[in-house]
Fold this protein.
Amino acid sequence: MVMTEEREAARVNHDAAMPVYRQLAAILRDQIASGHLAAGRVIPTEKVLMEVHDLGRDSVRKALALLREAQLIESVPGRGTFVTENGQALALEQAKGQ
Amino acid sequence: MVMTEEREAARVNHDAAMPVYRQLAAILRDQIASGHLAAGRVIPTEKVLMEVHDLGRDSVRKALALLREAQLIESVPGRGTFVTENGQALALEQAKGQ
DNA sequence: CAGCATTTGTACGTATGTATG
DNA sequence: ACATACATACGTACAAATGCT
């Protein structure tokens, strides 16, 4: 049996107590902390996140807003959303505390 | 002619360049800074703000979210939205810088 | 240069859930 | 039980910025 670095991509649970937008924020934060999403042009588009997690745009944008407030990511209209310079470091810090 | 302390209540301009939710946030912030909205149970309900400024709930909630981030207000489900302890002081600080 | 597709931003509406009084 | 008020979550439409053709 071959062990790989791959894991099941975390998914939002629509029935969980935690709001889906917080779940998505946590998932993305962990992916940033783990380096799975690295600096540069990384975060999938809102459209992709909507499709992958079966969410409305509202929830996706709320999740990204949380990460923006935490200065893990930055968005640029017409281009996309990026992990900030020290995004991974910040995400690691925050992941520790939780 | 009698001078009063009353002034025209500032209103959102739907045709301005600045997004209406930022306009509303600025209006409320100034009202807090001026003491027109004091600590305690102050901020009008979302419903009232929607009607007074002819805005959708989205815009009203975005405006309040900005003030929450700035720690000027706090909201409690079922009760309402309140100016924080040091809300006026904070609002004054921010009003200076703008 | 114009035109087009992509992507984020703003703004509206609606429905339902949760907390308070 | 009920009304009020904020929270979550879905949807739509259009605007603005970017990059490509």
